[in-house]
Write a structure and sequence with these properties.
This protein has about 450 residues and is of the alpha+beta class. About 30% of the residues lie in helices and about 35% in strands. Helix 1 (about 5-45) runs antiparallel to helix 3.
Amino acid sequence: MRNANPVGVSCYAFRVSQHLMRVTRFAFRIRSAFCAIIELHYDFSMAPSSRSHRGVFDDEFALPSHGGRSKGHAGRPSAPGSVVRLSLYKKIAATFVTLSVLALFFVLYISFAHATVTIVPKVEQASTTFSVSLTPEPKGADALQGYIFETVVDGTKTVVASGTAATMVEGTACGSVTIINDQSKAQPLVTTTRLLTPDNVLFRIKKTITVPAHGQTFVDVCADKPGKTGDIAPSTFTIPGLATDLQKKTYAQSFSAMRGGLSSVSVVTEAEVAQVVDAYAQELGAQATLKLRDLVPVAEMRAGSFLTQNIVKRENTAKPGSPQNGYTISLSVHVVGVFYDPMALGQTAAAGLRASIGSGRDLIAVDQEHLAAKLEQADAVEKKARVSVTIGGKAVRRGAAEVVDIDKIVGLSPKDALRYLESLPFVASADVSLSPVWARSIPTLKDHVDVVVQQPK
């Protein structure tokens, strides 16, 4: 990358001073040539006797006197046509001065013309996967400090069946009724007294009661036969055991539906039991992790952890395929906890990514947020663990400024130069700025062209 720096500025000022010295020498040479031409022309124009007494810049360039003639050294009149020659010399002088000024401006333009080419390299995705060992006393570049502990945790849990699988089971419909007595005397009713609906569905009361005169009593009832027929809506009931005339004065009425004649009962499946066992093992493992974390002597190492668990004992009362509303499971779980410092792991991952992209690219960003670490193995006896780490980031080509061929852009307009620069495979965008402001093309001197690399945002 060619950037402005104090040394570069000093070198640039030295080059400018050299150009100015060349311009000065060039001007003196023009002046000398001009004087020589005038001297030569004057010598051939004057009489031979006077050539040795007159110089180029003597009276020849003197203005005419009051009499219209110019005077020489001794008051001699000027040679004929001297005024004409003076006009010719002025024109020649003006021409040379103009050429000198133009040459000076040209040299100054060449000296001070400058172009800055800014390129933004293309961003490339980079990623790598490698293994890191964790141990209390790490050794080697691929090792980090970590602690490994183990324990066995036991637990028992009562589970309610999920009901995702169910079967219909016949039962006895039950409910409650209100016995109403409009007689002037109390009416006793014994257990199993029959109550009959208008649709001839028979129910029996579940206990002995006495209904007061002009009163009512609440009592539970169940259908005489199991099955769906007992599931009825609110209804009125007669009491067949009473005399016909008394059945109109003493009767029953329900205000809610009877339920239980046909009901849905949960059926436990093997998949449900396996899912519950796995979830409970995870729960026990989390509890064990909290206990193991307290054993870690370094606080920073408690922030990150891996967990492996193995069920060493399993008991349950579930009967897959049978109607069952709940069951009990008992587990013993062997837990191994691996603890490490996430920040140290992230730094190691970034270093690994930087090393993996090679010498031809520069890493400009590391995606620590999506770093993925997976425990490959853990040995609680040897106190060692191995972790697989995957990390990604962004990289750009290294030395992009040096790769740009300046010979292909010198003398081009900014538009043509940009067309070439943006055709390069490693360039995302480019910009060209010229100085002085009236410059219209990139200088032809390569040392007047700076290439600057701007990192992408």
